[in-house]
Each structure stands twice: as C-alpha cells, then as structure tokens.
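Example record for the data management plan.
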Amino acid sequence: GAEEDDFGYRLFPDRNKKQQSFLVRSLFTFHNRCQVMLRMTLETNPYAQLLLEAMKQSGCTVFNDRHFSCEDCDGCVSGGFDAATSQIVLCQNNIRQQSHMNRVVTHELIHAFDHCRAHVDWFKNVKHLACSEV
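Corresponding structural encoding:
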C-alpha cells in the first residue's frame, strides 16, 4: 500500500516531482547557496573527502551531479539518504551555514558508504539502520 512505499518521502516533497530545468533551478537562491556550500564541503572538508575516497576504493564512485540533490524539505529535516536512487538529499531551505552543510554531508555520506559497502537493507532490517546511525 501507500504507507508501505512511503520510505519517509513525505519529509522530502520534491522527491516525486519532475526535475525543473537548470535555468529555473538556478534562479532560486536557496538552491544556489546549497550548491555552493556543497561544493565547498566536497572540496575542503577532510571527513567528506575521506568518505568519498573510501567509497571509490570500494568500487562506488560518487558523481556530484548524480548523487547529491539540493531540494526543499518539510519541517526541520536537514538531509537524508535515498537508497532507492542512491542520492544524498540536502535540504536547501534548512541548511543555512557551511558548518551545518559539512555535518549533514558527512553524516549522509556515511549512509551512502554503508549502502555501497555493506548492501544495507534500510527498510526491512532495523539493526542495519541502527548500525549506520551509530
């Protein structure tokens, strides 16, 4: 049913929408700021760089345009890892500082690494989810 297939998407309303054109997206300052802060994190944060390199060594190369998505989110959610698409969702309307972006990207990269390396069953094995959150 609908509840079984939710996977928490109600917190990420942009997940099921058709992608807007680059021109339309680039006009929104939240999106621009998110993209700039993400780029800064990926280029300068040692934890993010360590995790990206570990993923590469495990055979899971990350492509920034494909595996990171800046989107509007509901409530006070900062980000999430969408295992169905192997994407890290960054909540552009809730991440306002570089230090916050650094923490969110690092946290979600840990989930992405676990997904890549350990083939975590996010939705049926609560122990897998708990292990990744620790």
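Summary line stored alongside the record: Strands lie at 68-71, 79-82, 87-91.
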